Each structure stands twice: as C-alpha cells, then as structure tokens.
Amino acid sequence: MRTILATIILSLMFGFSAFAQQRPDNEQHPKHTPPQVVDRAGKPDRFPSKEELQSQKIAFFTQELELTPEEAQKFWPVYNAVSKKTQAAKKQINICLKNLHNALNAETPASDSDIKLLMNNYFKACEEEIDLQAKNFEELSKVLPVDKAAKTFSLEERFRIMLIRHLRK
C-alpha cells in the first residue's frame, strides 16, 4: 500500500514540475512577452535627449516660477549663463574628487602631503562653487524679483530629483 501511495505522489510531483518548466526563448508564447514600457506619446521609453531635457526644464521652471513673457525673455539668457558657470564649477569638484579617489586607491599609497594637497584643491573648488552660487543669485535678482530668484535654486534640486525618479522607473 505504501509503495502505491509513494508512486502516485512521486508521479504527481514529477508531472507538476514538468509543466512548470520554461520554454526556450524562441518558443515563448506571445502572451508571455514582457510588456514594453512606453511614454505618453506611445513611443518606447528611453533616456530623454539633452534637448528634450532642456525643454522639460524650461517648461518646469516657467510654470513653477510663473514667469511672465517679459520676465522669461530676461531670465533665460541670464539663467543659461549662470548655469554654464555652475556646471563648470561642479565639473571641477568632480575632477578633484576623482584625483583624490585615484590617489587613495593607487597601488603605491599617496603621501600625506599629497593627500592634503588634493583635499585642499577639493575644498577650494567647493568654496568657488559656493561663491559662484552667491554671484548667480545676485545676477538672477537683477532680472527677477528676489523671491523668484531664490526659488530657482530649490527648483534646480526638485527638477534633478524628478529626473532621478523618472530614470529609476
């Protein structure tokens, strides 16, 4: 009796496991293909181009700052100029961090004086970026009310966070 029961149980287990096997990729049933992620326009989702990002940023800033046409006409040239300077400053910070990383992870250890020099270069680059942010605020305050000029800094961060969240999806 036990052998018959064991045979039935084993045959059921092997039968179910045979149905659970995946088909090779070339034999996948069309119903089982993963859905393609699409954007609102129905196109396959991909990383937006630089131009698309720029137009999204312009729309976001214009809406959030509630720019009038006159303000927008004055704001965007100034913003683009200060944005280029800020990007250059951030790039310099990244170069300093990369140099520090390379020195710390080199096969031959860097000397303490070399590390201190690299750290001083990093601190100097960070200070230059902070000084640049203050100058940027002054420039933006010349073409926008102070509250809108200040809001551009928080909007930069909000836009960056929105972009990161979109890319994670």
Write the layout of secondary structure elements.
Elements: H1 2-19, H2 50-65, H3 69-104, H4 112-143, H5 146-168
Attribute tags:
74% helix, 5 helices, 169 residues, 0% strand, mainly alpha
Describe this structure in words.
The chain is built from five helices and no strands. By secondary structure, it is mainly alpha-helical. The longest helix has 36 residues. The two termini are 56 Å apart.
Look at the helices and sheets and give the structural class: mainly alpha
Overall body shape: globular
Strand content: under 5%
Looking at the chains present, what oligomeric state does this protein adopt?
Answer: single chain
Query: Regarding CATH, which class of the domain at 69-168?
Result: Mainly Alpha
What is the count of helical runs? 5
Report helical residue fraction: over 70%
End-to-end C-alpha gap? 56 Å
Q: Main beta sheet, described?
A: none
Give the uncertain stretches in residue-range form.
Answer: 4-38
- The value of Rg in angstroms is 29 Å
The fold-level CATH name of the domain at 69-168 is Four Helix Bundle (Hemerythrin (Met), subunit A)
Element order, helices and strands? HHHHH
User: Which CATH-level-2 architecture of the domain at 69-168?
Assistant: Up-down Bundle
Overall pLDDT confidence: 80
